[in-house]
Design a protein that fits this description.
The structure is a homodimer. Chain A is an alpha/beta fold. Helix content of chain A is 48%, strand content 16%. Chain A is built from eleven helices and ten strands. A five-stranded mixed beta sheet of chain A has the order 4-5-6-8-10, with helices on both faces. In chain A, strands 2-1-3 form a three-stranded mixed beta sheet. Chain A has a two-stranded parallel sheet with strand order 7-9. In chain A, helix 2 packs across helix 3. The longest helix of chain A has 30 residues. The first copy, chain A, is globular. Chains A and B meet through helix 5 and helix 6 of A and helix 5 and helix 6 of B.
Amino acid sequence: MFPQDIEVIKVDGTKERFNGKKLEESLRRSGADSLVASEVVAHVGKELVNGITTSDIYRHAFSVLRNKQKMASARYSLRRSLLALGPTGFPFEKFIGEMFKRMGFSVLLDQMVQGKCASHEMDIVSWNGEKLIMVEAKYHHEQAYKSDLKVALYVKARFDDFQDGSFSYGNRTKLDEGWLITNTKFTEKAIHYAQCSGVKLVGWNYPERGNLHDLIATAGIHPITCLTTLSFGEKQTLMEQGIVLCEDFIAQKAKLKALGWGDEQIEAVAAESILLCST
Amino acid sequence: MFPQDIEVIKVDGTKERFNGKKLEESLRRSGADSLVASEVVAHVGKELVNGITTSDIYRHAFSVLRNKQKMASARYSLRRSLLALGPTGFPFEKFIGEMFKRMGFSVLLDQMVQGKCASHEMDIVSWNGEKLIMVEAKYHHEQAYKSDLKVALYVKARFDDFQDGSFSYGNRTKLDEGWLITNTKFTEKAIHYAQCSGVKLVGWNYPERGNLHDLIATAGIHPITCLTTLSFGEKQTLMEQGIVLCEDFIAQKAKLKALGWGDEQIEAVAAESILLCST
């Protein structure tokens, strides 16, 4: 894992062989969990050169740790914010719709789409010049709740029912991709089935690239539920008004005023929105 | 609806034109509901001949009514007995399995069946020399609960996943039919989808011929829950022992004795089983 026989220079000027274990222990003492600590050591170890000082190593290690923890903490916070988009599934659908819009798609929510054998309520229909994507969005309030094989199966049958259909979304007449998006995870069986049968799954930590947090980061959006200056009830009110993005809060000050919010509160929340949501 | 100008002979020997309304009213006074009363009048009216006496007409009408009510009452009782096969779905699956056996099929319950993209838990696999049928059994405790489009969709995707499969049940290597059986009803959308996509649905009152009560009547079986000499708890105990047919009760006296039942109770229940369940 490390370059062999790297000599590092200690504070007193003496030399010694690099000791990854000692570095890992000091990272753990500073609060990193064992997985992150060993990742940081591995990362730093790969960039060692002969004659580096221990201070340089520790400075480098702690800056890598800060970045890793910041990303882990942002991801953790996003996961919680998505779970808070309840209790109904609609704010999550709207959030996903906004995500597609930011990625350059036209979007319609809650469409009845006629298939060969049934009409189906599609949560999100999104298209650009090259692709027509239909999306089933599964919101779960509990992180532990996984979308299972039965969900993947009925979504597959639904997309099959659209296979011979002719649509009219922009210049797209055929369904290109059927997606099942959830804010939590999928069971192993659902993943295996979907990979084999051609249903595209997007969930928490799945797939490795292009998963839900990757797409949200690409789109550059932030759920309104991430704001700490709003109470639970205030977030609910905003979501009922169709405001699910931090970014929307900033844009809709007038609407909030009409809802009876005071200037001071609006500015406080807007300030947090700008701070948290424009990163 | 009636032969024109039929003259009937009254008790006092005088003649008058047949009056369906009067007959219907007397049937309703005797307890028939309006639908059944008008059905009986229609049935009797079609068989009228000139010179028939009013007594003959009434005798005929009431015998038709008795048959109709008996069938309606038996069907009503069967529906309730099927609902009582809860609280889990397993007794219903076992009951359906027994139904297939009586219709000459070999039957396996709760099989993991490997499809192209997933292994699926099939409630009932049944086959004879000519057909391999796989069945998803949906038990609902409430008559009002209907199996909907999503159920039909995932069942369809599951059967699709078996389409290219090679099996080994008797001499059958290919899946011939995929059935979705429920003890209640299906939504209109589920019915339309299934008809169009080739999933066979069997439920309460659906389809018109070959529905669940028709199949049960053909198989000549009766759910244990139809017995009035058993308490709710006793029925539960028997179902936990895998006894779901009236007919099984008669056959399993020794097992019941081993469970601590007294001779007198066993004989009382067996007597009712023979009376009710051997019709």
